[in-house]
Amino acid sequence: MSTGTGKHHLPNLPAGTPESWASMQFNSLFKNYVLQNEGWEDNLKTVDDFWDFISDITFKVLGQDIFTTAGDDFSSAETGFLYGNRRMGPVRIRQVRVPSKACSDVYFRNILGTEDTGLTKCYGEFSPTLTLENSFQKEAPDFSPDLDAQPWFRLRDKTELQEMAFFSAAYATYPGAGYVVDVENAHIKNGQVVLETKPFPDDKLQSLNVTVGELKNSRWIDLKTRAVFVDFSFFNPNLDTFLVARLAVEFLYAPDPHLIPSFSLAAASGD
Predict the structure, then answer these.
(1) Domain count, the chain
(2) Which residue in 85, 121, 136, 265 is a FRET match for 148, CA 20 to 30 A apart?
(3) Rounded to an integer, what distance in angstroms lies between the CA atom of residue 60 and that of residue 110?
(4) Whether the Cβ atoms of residue 248 and residue 40 lie closer than 8 Å to each other
(5) Average pLDDT over residues 163-175
(6) Residues contacting 67, CB < 8 A, separation 6+
(7) Cβ(21)–Cβ(29) under 8 Å?
(8) How do residues 86-138 score in pLDDT, each as one tens digit?
(9) Is the whole model's pTM more than 0.85, yes or no?
(10) Domain for residue 113, yes or no?
């Protein structure tokens, strides 16, 4: 898991260290304050809920910048604990997808009762043994994204993303590769949350804004989506400790469509 500062995956540290104490405190306070009333867990059930959550959380962390504006006198019960934590790098939104596969004849005959259904593709569960598609594929024949104007449709490997090879969420284990939006800032325009993205070195456009609504309408999330990770990286100079918070949302479509959200936190010394 990258901190956005060149550091790679941060391991959990032994109990009794300043880093483990910071991790425990930050874990509780991040969930209680940052995720409070943000549609997390109990209310995160549909794709629309997911996009509402992305709007809320990115603006709360980036637009309001609560981690750098907390007062140093601890007079605010809500934000006093945030003093000393500084956000490092962008908020990363990374998607992992599965390839489509041909549905079996048995499925059509026995379940649907016909072979002429028009449904020729099925989308299974994610497995670490799957071969990822090397580009963002949709079944729609007119789908042809402009990778310069829409770089979040470009596959990034784990080395480029400085991600560990695999990460285990609540339901499955996923690779470090994926389709990424790195968000450096966020603001409100015409009632919509605008994400100010951070470009990768190979991106031709070095300044690119996209609204959450535009991402949603482009169907960046679809039936092939199996997990989306939202990563926040922080540094506490008082404790000389890096903290990485990861929100994972897994998308399952069998036996019924539902989302599985989870939260994890890692800490490591800045030494």
Answers:
(1) 1
(2) 121
(3) 49
(4) no
(5) 90
(6) 61, 82, 85, 86, 87, 234
(7) no
(8) 778 899 999 999 988 777 655 555 555 555 555 567 788 888 888 877 788 87
(9) no
(10) no
